[in-house]
Amino acid sequence: MAFCLHMSFFFLFTINNLWGNKNISIPLNEGVNIFAGINGSGKTTILNILYCALFNDPDNEICKSKYETAEIILTDGYRVNVECKEGKKEAQFFHNDSAISYETFAAEMEPFAVSSFDSNMYPMDVMTKLKERYPWLNSDLEYRLVNKLQDFYMYRNDITHKIEQVAFEKGTHMSQVRNFFQDVKDLRAIIDELFAPKLKWDEKASEVQFVLQENTNQIIHPKDLSSGEKQMLILAIDTLLQEKRECVVFWDEPELSMHVDWQKVLIKVMREINPHMQLILATHSPFIIYDGWENRVVNIQKVIK
Q1: Residue 221: which residues within 8 A CB-CB, separation 6 or more?
Q2: Rg (CA), the chain
């Protein structure tokens, strides 16, 4: 799950009466925040409560019955309070202690993208249409892959439109035009490094596809990638689409199906694509924290009281 906050980051998150008898308070930094803990410790529940509150949907069936109140304190004077009124969860939004509408808050919090790794987010009619177009769709991961590839093609088309707009402007230099493509080029280089020595991004193809390093005539389509490769491609494209903006990004167990070597470099690689993200992730993987993130780990069992 991801969305952009203009210059604002989460600073402190508190939940009262989690599961009816627990309280939690988590200070967050502007860089990387890792929620760790055993199964059932509450990592995913906490992410869902935070996410639903920020999108003004605290009464969502996913989490509404699991807590009583919550408060999110952000930088720049923004704050979100969630309370239960007449049996229903409601979120209130504030700036410098003055109440503001959700629309005002959302104007500062431009919704960017949504992804999840443990539940299907598509309505049945959408899934049916996608299945008609892509008969090979059989898993939630594959639906997300198709959705993210479509987002990538739209992003690339937008680059073309931007180039058309500036191409004939007086004083335009080729370096300016090249800059539009640089982020996509950097993404391909990162994927090539990760997928080596087996696969290489086919730069000549109009759609995303890969070729075997040992036989460049052998085409590998995204649907034929391994589960771990699909997962990595989804995360990389999602991060590219943030366009290096200051974003708050939620990951729930991003390591699923991913090779240990990729788990070790996952945070580093994605922050190369967007160094301005505030990352909040829940994970079971000890390997994710090995690349210098040990001091960013929050043990959920220790902060729940």
Answers
A1: 209, 210
A2: 21
Q: Which two tokens stand for residue 18?
A: 């989690």
Q: Find, among 225, 241, 230, the residue nearest to 157 by Cα.
A: 241
Kindly state the tokens that stand for 117: 């790794």
d(CA 101, CA 66): 25
Angle value at C-alpha 143, between 265 and 157, nearest 5 degrees: 80
Q: What is the pLDDT of residues 153-171, one digit of tens each?
A: 999 998 888 777 776 666 6
Closest CA to 55 of 133, 109, 135, 123: 109
15, β-bridge pairs: 24, 70
For the stretch 208-226, pLDDT in tens is 999 999 998 999 999 999 9
Report d(CA 251, CA 235) in Å as an integer.
9
Residues 6 or more apart whose CB falls under 8 angstroms from that of 301 comprise 37, 38, 41
